[in-house]
Amino acid sequence: MGTPETSREPCPDRILDDIGAPSAWGRSAVRPSTSSRVFTTPQWGAAGGGAQAVRMNAPRVGGSFAVWGGLFSAFDCTMVYVRQKEDPWNSITAGAVTSGFLRMRQGAAAASRSALFGEVFRAREEKGETALREDSRTKVLESFDAPSTPVPTFDFK
Prior knowledge:
Helix 1 runs antiparallel to helix 2, helix 2 crosses helix 3 (about 90-100) and helix 3 (about 90-100) packs antiparallel against helix 4 (about 110-145). This protein is an all-alpha fold. It is built from four helices and no strands. Among the domains are: about 10-65, no CATH class; about 85-130. Helix content is about 70%, strand content about 0%.
């Protein structure tokens, strides 16, 4: 649990990576959800209404994803700096702080509920990642065990 993740960038670069990727996810997530308006907007024509809805909503949703990703990564890097170790607790705490921070305008009660939800969500996600990592590690180690059938040897005389 205390092993560092080697697949991620170091902290200053990680923030920029975590702004760009969620922005792209958000922009691409708009297409399937918003293009359903094709059938509900007859005044613009079938294809025109869906295409216009996608064009209008993609920057907004992509920006929201980018803000969440950037704040999460900044709080995650702050936790790494303060605690001087990289483990799942940094990510769980960063998820709670990010969710609460983004809901502060709605009041303390909404921010605390959102922080609790963000913390539970990140904890479940980290638990799943850990389980997958352990499962794949076990399968890899089992594949390197001694074979059950004898290996043929070739003795040349």
